[in-house]
Give the backbone structure.
Amino acid sequence: MKLRALVMLLFSANAMASDVTTSKIKELLTYNSNDFVFVSLEKIPGNKPTCATNPYDYIFHLKSDQGKAIYSKLLAAYVSGKSLTFKGTDECDPLQANAEVLHYVSAK
């Protein structure tokens, strides 16, 4: 019986993964004092991880070339009013523990 409950718990945790969301960007926030970019969407993503209590929907870092490329894509979409597709990692950033890390963003 305990094994069955454990298996059900594991499957339900996977079912709660954050949703893929297509939306326009409501706000981008950056600070001069760190390399975080906070992203707020017009459509609120569903099934966010419980650690994600920050009012911004996603976070990522600008240090890497990938982060800079993502930021460029987000800025272009924001300025043009285009929608993008977003997916989080289902985990919060270790340095900003209340914000879900952005896994990918796709333009169609």
